[in-house]
Amino acid sequence: MKKLLCILCSLLIVLFAATSFAAAGEKRVVLGIERIDEPFAKQLLAGKRLGLFTNQSGVDSKLRSSTELLQKSYDLTALFVPEHGLFGAVAAGETFESHTYKGIPVHSLYGENRRPTAKMLDEIDTMVVDIQDVGIRHYTYFSSLAYIMEECAKAKKQVVVLDRPNPLGGAMQGPVLKPEFKSFIGLYELPLRHGLTIGEFARFINSTQHIECDLKVIPMKGWHRRQLWQDTGLPWVQTSPLIPTAATSFLYGATGVSGDSNLSVGVGTAKPFYFLGAPFADADAVKAALDEKQLAGVAFRAARFTPRYGAYSGELVQGVEIYLTDLRKVNLPELDYILFTTFKELYPEQVKTPERGYGSKGYKLDIALGESSLREGEAPKTAFARWHQECAAFEQQVKPYLDNNGAGKNKINIV
Questions:
Q1: What is the pLDDT, as a whole number, of residue 144?
Q2: Measured over all CA atoms, what is the biggest interatomic distance in the chain, rounded to whole angstroms?
């Protein structure tokens, strides 16, 4: 009898484990790249010379590259790559030359040409897009996509976007970009935390910016706007040298603007964007000032660190390490604003906001935030109330282009 009970218990454990595994598998988001062999995708891609806009982040759930997968099934004739290069090995802001990879021409869209030229586009019939964004407006991959769409519209080339999750989910937070602060790190009037997938962004700008390219979006299966990256069941591949993990994309949203001042955000340490500090600061004083604010979803540790490169390389920096304790409660742009404002209150003479340089007018901080409120000292409460109104208006404007609100213009409604 005992032996029979043991066997039954073992069977139940195996059955439970199998059921749990199946349930976990069902919850995994299916990416656009994982649908390229479905009949509707074959109708779009078969018999065409394909270009592919991608980098190392373009992988499926088994970490197979989109380059490999498209080569296997279709005629891939050219690659197009954004800032940081095909492998994400080029530092921010550094240009690089076009080259070849496994016999395929690789065209740099972050050097002499930020747009594909007519000669480049002569090599292809259709441009496929598979690249992972991080959910923050001043990340440059959306801008590269916009330029691709504009040039493909002129050249009468179709654009097929293989959709991917927004790692920060569908929340829209922070200021909507003001027109006078448009730049390559913010071409359109989106919130700082924009809440869009790359496919949704493409549909939105194609219509509202009158690009009107021949656009199709191959949708994901199983993704919902409330999902954060950890809910997708997908592996994360670093999207650029300083975004090594999905968690870093949240911290990038919390300190990325402040990093365009003379404060260090931990670049040059093992945890970029997790810190905020300066050599002139006192770690304990900064922590005490931030703790008094009792901010939702975040905690602080008094921190001292020495960057190995970048701002304050080799110097002892004091400030705080930031811990996001509840990702659904924290408002990332508001946290960034409060962090900078707190440092400014503590060290009004030492905190500086450098100009852009390179012959361009304006301030780095303004360009990153999308407005001048932070540099000019607008009260957080006043700024945040305005931001909430701007995001509410944007959410209504973009609603027709969102995946969870029907097919959306240019979306292939296949599930």
A1: 95
A2: 85
Q: Which amino acid is at 236?
A: W
Q: What percent of the chain has pLDDT over 90?
A: 82
117 vs 115: CA distance, rounded Å: 6
332 contacts 250 by C-beta, under 8 angstroms:
yes
Summarize pLDDT for 315-357 with one digit per residue, the tens: 999 999 999 999 999 999 999 999 999 999 999 999 999 998 6
Q: Which residues contact 3 (CB under 8 A, 6 or more apart)?
A: none
* pLDDT digit string, tens, across residues 188-234: 999 999 999 999 999 999 999 999 999 999 999 999 999 999 999 99
Cα separation of 319 and 343, whole Å?
A: 9
Mean of the per-residue pLDDT values of the chain: 90
Measured in degrees and rounded to the nearest 5, phi and psi for residue 40 equal -65, -35
